[in-house]
Amino acid sequence: MNAPTPETAVAVTFTEATAAEALEIATLETAVAEQMNRDFGPGHWSLRTTERAVLHALRTARVFVARTGPDLVATLRLATQKPWAIDKSFFHESRRPLYLTAMAVAPGLQRRGIGRALLAEARRIARDWPGDALRLDAYDDPCGAGEFYTKCGFEEVGRATYRGTPLIYYELLL
């Protein structure tokens, strides 16, 4: 699971996360939330991630990390259980969909190909799982990463508002 991939300016190594990495993952996710808060103002994205929340995620999803040497630079979560904000009626028929429920790249390393490498790794993991689709939601807001997901091959399949939060649903069929 080693990269560098052609589109990555930073060489990364992917591994499945362990409980020993929970605090480090929480710290990275909080740093990303703080950067988004500075860039876009307060919102749902402003929440701090705790070590306890990451430990819970490790029990309910598969969490992966990307490192450059010893440094944790990115993380993503894949789950078989549909997140609360996803409305399945917008998606294609699928027997084994996987849900990308969290993704974060260290603020100082964004726009250097690590996010694309993460999604390529998510695609590989999903095929091996086995899964037949990757699904996610993104904020329908300037802070949302919808354009990025589209550039990475995901298709917009719908828009909805959940508890006052406008969302765009994306899917990648495998």
Count of beta strands: 7
Rg (C-alpha, Å): 15 Å
Query: What is the overall number of helices?
Result: 4
Global outline: globular
Rounded mean pLDDT score:
93
Structural class: alpha+beta
Please describe what this structure looks like.
Helix 1 (22-40) packs across helix 2. This protein has helices at residues 22-40, 51-60, 114-128, 146-151; strands at residues 13-16, 62-68, 71-79, 97-105, 133-139, 155-162, 165-173. The chain has 174 residues and is α+β, with helices and mostly antiparallel strands. Strand 6 (155-162) and strand 7 form a beta hairpin. The chain has a domain at 13-129: Aminopeptidase, CATH 3.40.630.30. 29% of the residues lie in helices and 30% in strands. The protein has a 7-stranded mixed beta sheet.
Topology summary:
Layout: E1 13-16, H1 22-40, H2 51-60, E2 62-68, E3 71-79, E4 97-105, H3 114-128, E5 133-139, H4 146-151, E6 155-162, E7 165-173
Parallel strand pairs: 4-5
Antiparallel strand pairs: 1-2, 2-3, 3-4, 5-7, 6-7
Helix pairs in contact: 1-2
What's this model, at a glance?
The protein is α+β, with helices and mostly antiparallel strands.
Which short descriptors sum up this protein?
29% helix, 174 residues, Aminopeptidase, 4 helices, alpha+beta, globular
